[in-house]
Write a structure and sequence with these properties.
Structural class: alpha/beta
CATH architecture of one domain: 3-Layer(aba) Sandwich
Number of helices: 37
CATH topology of one domain: Rossmann fold
Oligomer: single chain
Number of strands: 25
Strand order of the largest sheet: 10-11-9-12-17-8-18
Radius of gyration: 31 Å
Strand content: 5-15%
Largest sheet: 7 strands, parallel
Length: about 950
């Protein structure tokens, strides 16, 4: 069996219009080694586009005297006889190959095809990216010249061999399961799996270390039944005893001494020392604390050290909540293991997420029963990857997997949920990932969770998290927004379609057909009657779906008729009880029809479920009935949300609709959220907890916590002296590290031609700045439309300088992928909107210049902002000063925070919005910054000032090195 790994470099993506400019082949022999290679440039009929040269490094002069296409084919066609063709995204190379063969009069290639992207997705389901560069880096494969065909072919061959080796060494149960998912007759990946299994079955049995077999599954033993590496052992002395005679200051000294031994460069920081004391005092005095701690403070340790000391000495559980999974993982992977080594006592810590983040093993087992012909290739790849992952994961959390948005349904079908849980009756109970995480949380001294679960727990009357009365909230500037989302409702087209598909996808798949089949074969006195009743309900699924589609289309038509779409095609329409849209009555008829049909479906099924459950004790039947109960609960939840929306049933809620002009009815979402969560937060969190510590880099406006105190419902705590605040001094020397430039004569967006003049000046200035600093520039926009307008002309103008322009939503790929590309290619300008204002880390030389195009005011017409403004107006308060301005200042501070990430970072911020120096409110933005040098100057003088400042910084750096 001989494999040929093929890679082409081309002038573009279209095999019909573009041409091959380089060919690389690597051949793998039976011994599993790369035995020979072939490489050649190919002369195209037209010049190579500049962006292809930038990507590949291949220039017109490289291919000027290269063989023509036909000559190259004369070389490789004999080599491709009787080989299995392998490629990374092989269909791309195959299309170019078939086209070239056809043009030159050869027969098409008809052999087997294997794609290393598919293989890697199957065998390495936790990799964050499947690009060749990412995989070679992650798997330790040498890849010296990415985007050159000869280097890519050899790297792909090495990747293929790594994948092949992993496939051969999978647990036998896993290999057998994969074999059942892919048809070896019609599918070359299936052929490879079947061939590997045949080979494996001829080999002597090898012990599968770290693998546990249960119900025909191979699972990672991990630390089942043992203590997690983050946790202390049972037999260790009680921590409260070991801390009995140690004061907090003595404890801090011990920990800091240990940290200095572990990290000789570690030094104490004034801001962190203040934070230690403030957090400890708040925990001890049963008070709440707001603490603004900028980048570089070391705020994770700032709250973890006092929390662990207090919690263990007083035997009180402390919960830490983050907004992002990213920070949760950082605490788990970096900070807590570090503290296990540095602290004078051992402690238990656990990470506990929302239930749907964990795999339900019973559902996953049921899902595996679906026959292969009922699965698409994509579905099989995801399910196959999850089967491989099961032999490796000890946590069973969705974040470990690279599933991607479009395949979220596959995860939803197997994720844990309360309504379909058999608890102790489940054969998987002792191995259940969710129950294990919950048990660990119950034993832990410190629980790391997220804001979303915090409020889900609040709604579930505190039944999810173990009892606690000390809470630390990191990324606290998001607390109000998350509370609003989770204490409200959000229902869309898919909210009903997905559970309906779980009930009935086709005659074989879905809970209902499985239940009908199981009941009819029970052979009891009532099974015939039950089967009939169940079959009567089947057409109702179709009726509900049709009625729901009709309602969604009617809502979309109302939306499109009454709301103007924004720059990205999104439509938003607020529904006010006092000003109902003209066709609200006919909409109510459609909505009530859905509600009635759902009731007529849910009620008889609930009754039948109870009757069948009493008669059937077989585990498979109990599992089916529990799954059905879970889906019925989802349907009932959609029914309740639809009812609440159409009756506008909660006067304290803001109701609105959203949709998109491209996807029409399928894009519709209906919302209802509390306009003001301060009362709910006060009652549900601050009145109930002894101490809540909230920290973030951005909590103050004009050096005051007033705004955040009002928004979070902390007024009363402040009056009663239960609220403490602390603004920590920055550990960075912003005056030397950052320069803020404001071009004072920059055009304002005023009048009919204002925006055109502004954008024209912006493109000119961004070009000049990018050329001055040589890329390494992040440009933050508040409008995607504006970003789109700037992207094309700027890209064109910077091409000749060798500076690439990356645009959010323009170059495809996630925020993470764009950020990685930006870091990898220093001569880059990255244009970003909303999500780039916070949470991205570009330390060191990755970022030299940050441009802020406009002050980040939120659109005032968003339904929640509008409702809040109305409430403020009713109280004779100024909505701009009380709401719009504070929100914009916090966002502005987050944006500014992208520039200086370490004590040695230096850079320039250019602020193109002259409102900061021309308006009364502009000062709030500038005063909120942590003390950088600020200068106003004419636009024409900026390039020279940037050059002189950077030169001075460089000279200072060089003189420091010589000293």
């Amino acid at each position: 069996m001989k494999f040929a790994v093929l890679d082409f470099e081309t002038t573009g993506m279209s095999s019909d219009n573009d041409e091959i400019i380089q060919t690389g082949l690597a051949f793998i022999d039976d011994a599993g080694t790369v035995c020979s290679t072939y490489s050649s440039y190919v002369r195209p009929s037209k010049p190579i586009p500049a962006e292809i040269t930038r990507l590949t490094g291949i220039k017109d002069e490289d291919v000027a005297s290269a063989p023509e296409l036909e000559n190259m084919l004369n070389d490789i066609v004999p080599m491709l006889l009787d080989v299995i063709l392998v490629g990374h995204n092989v269909n791309f190379d195959l299309q170019f190959l078939q086209n070239a063969l056809d043009q030159s009069g050869y027969l098409p290639y008809t052999g087997r095809l294997l794609d290393t992207v598919e293989l890697a997705r199957l065998l390495y389901p936790t990799q964050p990216s499947y690009s060749l560069t990412s995989l070679t880096q992650a798997l330790g494969i040498a890849h010296d010249r990415p985007h050159q065909a000869d280097s890519d072919a050899v790297a792909t061959a090495d990747l293929f061999l790594v994948c092949l080796n992993k496939l051969r060494n999978l647990p036998l149960f896993t290999l057998q399961r994969l074999n059942a998912m892919f048809d070896s007759e019609i599918n070359d990946l299936g052929w490879l799996i079947a061939d590997t299994l045949s080979w494996r079955e001829t080999q002597p049995l090898i012990p599968e270390e770290g693998i546990h077999h249960f119900r025909q599954f191979a699972m990672s033993v991990g630390d089942w039944g043992e203590e997690s590496p983050l946790n202390r052992n049972e037999d260790e002395t009680d921590a409260s005893d070991s801390l009995k005679d140690i004061s907090f200051d003595q404890y801090l000294t011990m920990v800091q001494d240990n940290l200095k031994v572990m990290f000789p460069a570690y030094e104490t920081r004034e801001a962190q020392d203040i934070m230690f004391q403030e957090v400890f005092a708040a925990l001890q005095d049963d008070s709440h604390l707001l603490v603004e701690a900028g980048t570089g403070t070391g705020k994770s340790l700032g709250y973890l050290l006092p929390s662990l000391y207090y919690g263990m000495k007083e035997d009180k559980k402390v919960v830490v909540s983050t907004h992002t999974i990213q920070l949760q993982e950082q605490l788990r992977e970096r900070d807590l293991p570090l503290l296990q080594q540095a602290l004078p006592m051992a402690f238990r810590a656990s990470v506990f997420k929302g239930r749907s983040n964990y795999l339900c093993l019973r559902k996953f087992e049921n899902r595996q029963q679906i026959p292969e012909y009922a699965m698409g290739r994509e579905e099989a790849l995801i399910r196959g990857g999850m089967t491989v992952w099961l032999g490796e994961t000890t946590r069973g959390e969705s974040e470990e997997l690279n599933i991607g948005g479009r395949n979220k349904e596959e995860w939803d079908a197997v994720s844990s949920d309360a309504a379909s849980c058999l608890n102790r009756a489940c054969p998987w109970f002792r191995r259940c990932f969710y129950h294990r995480a919950r048990q660990e949380a119950g034993k832990a001294d410190l629980i790391i969770t997220n804001h979303a679960l915090l409020f889900t727990d609040l709604r579930a009357e505190n039944r999810l998290l173990p009892a606690y009365d000390r809470l630390v909230v990191d990324e606290a500037h998001h607390l109000e927004e998350v509370a609003s989302q989770h204490l409200g409702q959000k229902t869309g087209h898919s909210s009903l379609i997905v559970p309906l598909q779980r009930v009935w996808k086709d005659a074989r798949t879905g809970v209902l057909p499985q239940l009908i089949s199981a009941v009819s074969s029970m052979g009891t006195r009532d099974s015939g009657v039950w089967t009939e009743k169940l079959e009567v309900l089947v057409p109702k699924v179709h009726e509900i779906r049709e009625a729901w589609e009709q309602l969604m289309d009617a809502l979309y038509n109302m939306l499109a008729g009454q709301a103007a779409s924004d720059e990205t095609g999104n439509l938003t329409l607020r529904i006010k009880p006092a000003e109902l849209p003209a066709n609200w009555d006919s909409l109510s008829v459609d909505a009530n029809n859905v509600i009635q049909l759902l009731s007529d479906f849910i009620r008889p099924l609930e009754k039948l479920t109870v009757e069948i459950r009493e008669e059937a004790d077989e585990l498979g039947m109990q599992g089916l009935l529990t799954d059905l109960s879970g889906v019925l609960k989802d349907l009932a939840s959609v029914r309740a949300d639809t009812q609440s929306f159409i009756s506008l049933g909660k006067p304290e809620f803001v109701y609105w609709l959203e949709g998109h002009s491209q996807y029409r009815g399928r894009s519709v979402w209906i919302f209802g959220v509390p306009a003001d969560v301060s009362g709910l937060l006060k009652e549900g969190v601050f009145d109930r907890k002894a101490s809540v510590i909230m920290t973030s880099a951005t909590l103050t406006i004009d050096k005051s916590f007033r705004y955040v105190t009002e928004q979070l419902g902390l007024d009363e705590a402040e009056k009663d002296g239960r609220l403490k605040t602390a603004m920590l001094p920055s550990p960075f020397r912003y005056r030397e590290q950052a320069l803020v430039l404001i071009p004072r004569d920059f055009p304002a967006i005023k009048g009919r031609d204002g925006e055109a003049l502004f954008l024209s000046a912006l493109i000119d200035s961004l070009q000049e700045m990018a050329q001055t600093v040589g890329g390494r520039m992040l440009v933050l926009f508040t409008s995607h439309r504006m970003l789109k307008t700037v992207y094309g002309p700027l890209k064109e103008r910077l091409e000749s300088s060798g500076i690439q322009v990356l645009g959010q939503g323009m170059d495809g790929g996630s925020r993470t992928r764009l950020t990685q590309q930006f870091i990898k290619q220093p001569a880059s300008v990255l244009l970003g909107t909303s999500s780039f204002w916070e949470g991205i880390d570009l330390p060191g030389d990755a970022l030299t210049c940050l441009a802020i195009v406009r002050l980040p005011f939120q659109p005032p017409n968003h339904p929640v902002a509008e409702a809040k403004s109305e409430k403020l107006q009713a109280e004779n308060k100024n909505p701009f000063m009380k709401l719009s301005l504070p929100q914009a200042v916090i966002r502005f501070k987050q944006g500014f925070g992208r520039l200086v990430r370490t004590a040695t970072d230096k850079g320039i911020v250019i602020l193109y919005d002259t409102r900061v120096i021309e308006t009364n409110y502009g000062k709030y933005f500038l005063y909120s910054l942590p003390g950088p040098k600020m200068e106003h100057l004419p636009t024409a003088a900026m390039a020279a000032r940037v050059s002189s400042w950077l030169n001075a910084v460089q000279e200072e750096g060089e003189s420091n090195e010589t000293h």
